[in-house]
């Protein structure tokens, strides 16, 4: 664990394994890094980390390069190594600079950008910081505040001449539809996937007011495929990630004084004592001295774990840049050395991939996606689509088709779709379901059968989901397909006939199919 600064206690892993009588197996083979990186890490940490198990190298990982450099001009030394990799042909996306703190990361980011090197940081990966999303936000601000500065900002961001913007009734038009209309009118989509992610994110906002005044809280990452540049991040943020070329930079400033005024003394995972950190107390209080010694040992362990994480992010080449004094690497006793041969797979800059321009098209996935998509092409009624999805979901969540089961299914419906439905729409769905569970013709269909809700059906390389599949005692099957409207009856019949043929061919049994229309005023069951 490297998260002790957040209150993490690594002893929990061992305790959980012990309490649950869990066999712990070590994963000894490293499938990420090249041989020179792995062997360097083994040499450095074998005598530093308690119970360290040397990592084994896979046969094909015979290369790699490690270099330990010393410089008191850390920023310039780091820039030199980045330029070195770029000149050798490394892709910017394959280079990562790992720093001790966010402040260090900000400084190296500014230096790289001053040299016209693109950089990706935690800030730049936020969705709201992407140019296309910022443009849409400026558009919404103009509609809301009616201030020309936002209109000019909008057109500047999309690279068009400033012009009048047609008014939109923001009190009547749904926020999602306002944004979609903006994207379509000004042809913003192209191949920008940030906007797709933004459209998905704003579904949780009820109106434009909520988004305008709260969008900075929108903690959503941008589409990774649209981000390019040298990655600059802290060691803690790098856990779980990997890069071909990693530069681990020493901390720019002196290490901070001991965090926290409280010392917690643990025996395993059991809290034994709590002490107020007091200078000089360890000279006269043996118990405090013991607790302080344990605390320092844990701090050292945490530091070693963090450096281990940093070094093992490298897949091919690892550069360590340390200061001559007060270095965070002092605990490792590193000397300036080179191991292996530096090899960079050159990226041909002349290679231009021809990407077909994408046009924005709404897609509806999940239950009944094929027909919902068809309906949307005809009427583009997003609320009707959401209504149908919500009704299907409530029926799926019915543990039994009875009045007693409705309350539970309603809770599940509200948990998943409540934010996008009006109160009257929820009530409408409830009434339709209540009529269904009291419809004798429907109850006769399911009587004595084994029910499968949202049953997956793979047939001729196509995956479909049956709303309700009933397996009767005689081995025959009944398919029931729910609909909330009768606008596309011919296509509904075609869909169910496809299901019938598929189930019949797979099971070699007798199969019947029914369309179950849960309408506003009645339930209509039609045999196909």
How much helical structure, as a percent, in the residues?
25-40%
In CATH, the architecture of the largest domain is 3-Layer(aba) Sandwich
Spell out the CATH superfamily of the largest domain.
P-loop containing nucleotide triphosphate hydrolases
Low-confidence stretches: 350-355, 362-380
Q: Specify the structural class.
A: alpha/beta
Task: Describe the model.
The protein has 528 residues and is of the alpha/beta class. The protein has three domains: 4-118 and 229-254 and 280-340, Rossmann fold; 127-225, no CATH class; 369-527, Lambda Exonuclease, Chain A, CATH 3.90.320.10. 40% of the residues lie in helices and 18% in strands. It has helices at residues 11-19, 35-45, 74-87, 102-114, 131-145, 148-158, 175-185, 193-201, 208-214, 235-238, 286-311, 369-379, 382-396, 406-417, 423-437, 440-446, 489-507, and strands at residues 29-30, 56-57, 65-70, 95-99, 119-120, 230-234, 243-249, 262-267, 270-276, 314-322, 338-340, 450-459, 462-471, 477-483, 511-518, 523-527. The protein has a seven-stranded mixed sheet. Helix 2 (35-45) links the parallel strand 1 (29-30) and strand 2. 25% of the residues are buried. The model is unreliable at 350-355 and 362-380 (pLDDT under 50).
